[in-house]
């Protein structure tokens, strides 16, 4: 459920007419709903309410400071994957003891920053990383709390580029190596073993792979405790999918996911951490864009919009589907016509939808790409020298620009000419 609905024939974000935002900010632009973000965070928090837990927002999905502050104020922790994200989380007021550091390639500099700034835990993904972290912590006279990310070798049955829990994926250490690496961790200076971490992929639409993975984590918890490790925290990752197509069968709900967590690992006496990104942010945002031209040649029809792959890369990168709806509600039963919806960027990859049935549209009409809250604005670039797409946050009947569109001068001003030119 989200808060982007038609009211009196016009698409609103909560109580704000989106056309009003388009007039004030211009297009393309992203618009997020406070109520949807809040609701989705709360669903996860409630789903785990029977257990000691922390919901850490996977901020790589949407990392604007305003969004982080909003979620942080609700009690969210953050799952960060770079020094930049760590700095963002801190700048948004998230205390270090609510920040988890994930990722296969943390640098020693990033480790040091987090150790000095305060960190809840490092999710360590390999033996060499563990040794590096030990060195850095020891040098600083600090102790790094760690969970080892294990790779349970389950197939999340999701898109190839976002499956992370198979043996052939670059993430974590194989389960059968885990006990040895935990033994090593316990022997290294500057390292404190506190838990186990697992994350098997993103946009999962079935609970089965989670069940397989968490069952293996429960077994490993028992084994590691037998080996003498004080396993007191389980980080179960993120990955719950969202419905990108309205009306299609919906993925499992956070409540069902919570019940699964309770059933598989709930009796281990561990604190539970989860790292949802997409389910919190995905349907909390739209990309608003304007129709520039309707081009018709032979039997094809193109709707050329002012948003492009540099603003929203998911269709080009993952073949992702986004529902695309006009801001003016089409009359019921109106005849639809198929069109390819494309942006202005100079490659054919800049195609958002092919042969998509659309209601009648004219130049200047505004369109919303739904489910564009997660892995959308954060992946935007300035390809084709298109200024970075702005972001707007709505709350009730108010809205605020939370990232302004750079001016052309600001964009050019980042370049430098070397002295010899
Ligand atoms: C990307 C990622 C997540 C979030 O995944 P979602 O599908 O957005 O919920 C959580 N944990 C880790 C380690 C990740 O890499």
TrEMBL record:
Binding-site list for pyridoxal 5'-phosphate: 239, 275-278, 375
Pathway(s): Amino-acid biosynthesis; L-lysine biosynthesis via DAP pathway; L-lysine from DL-2,6-diaminopimelate: step 1/1
Enzyme class per UniProt: lyase
Keyword Nucleotide-binding recorded: no
Residue(s) carrying N6-(pyridoxal phosphate)lysine: 60
Family indicated by similarity: Belongs to the Orn/Lys/Arg decarboxylase class-II family. LysA subfamily.
Protein name (Swiss-Prot/TrEMBL): Diaminopimelate decarboxylase
UniProt source species: Palleronia marisminoris
Name of encoding gene: lysA
